[in-house]
Amino acid sequence: MHSFSALIFSWRMRLTTLKRHKIALSLSVMILIAAAVCGPPIYQESWLDPFSTLDIPNRELRPHAIAMLGILNSDDPFHPYYYTNKGKILELIHNLRRATPLSSSEQDLVSLENQKVQYITLHRTPSTYHTEEDFALQYYTEKGIVRFGQQLFKINEATIYSISQINEGLTTGWWK
Length: 176
Prior knowledge:
eight-stranded antiparallel sheet
């Protein structure tokens, strides 16, 4: 059986072999600590996956910060709905990223008057990186066109499918 002093002596001998590698060992420990502290917030607030099509700087929109959607239909403007499934919201934002902007000549040809519209609010929750803010989006269901700011975008089938899945899981009312 080993005594306590023998255990201390054996650990001391092992540590003396690390004396030659002090700098490398201390740097690796510092990098591991920095990765453990900074890693999760950086991953959560990832700006590597931009919402670039809609001409908003990534530092302002931060796709992973959008936590809720508010939806209002033009058919029934007095009954708002909201949606909070963050996975589906992120999928919608990824699909919106593939939207193609319409040129000014194509925008002139598209008539959006008297069209069925869904008013979608992308709600960004507050965090240490940004304040709370809402981004307005208009979705013309019959044309497959989204208006964001002053720009029109043609969306693909995956985006239309994401919006239809979100419409099936809506909750009546508005978030609090």
